[in-house]
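Reopening this ticket.

The earlier resolution said the output was attached, but the attachment link was broken on my side. Pasting everything inline this time so it's all in one place.
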Amino acid sequence: AARNRVRVKVDLGDDIVAQAAPSKLRLIFLGLLTNGIDALANGGGEITVTAQNTNDRVEIDFVDGRSADAPDSFVSRAINNVVAQVSGQIERKQIDSGFRIRLILPPPRPLNTEG
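Inline output:
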């Protein structure tokens, strides 16, 4: 990222818990960050990653200064496939400050405490 003059700022908080295998989350994060870095490679910029718990899901936002989503690619199809494997969703949206990709994940299942 530094070679491309892209800075990554992450603020996930301490209370974010989702139902997904850590290895799958790593693949999703790596893919989304790689796409953002590639999109900003010529002019540099910043990617901000934030997360929040909502009533029935976890939302993780990847926001950068690009003007549009990257074209469909092998990487984006692979990301979508892994997101589907963890019962998640991806929303892509142009916003005032650039472009937002929102990863939506289910919350963890409650533990069965009955004996």
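Reporter confirms the inline version is readable. The CA atoms of residues 31 and 79 lie 6 Å apart. The longest helix spans residues 22-40.
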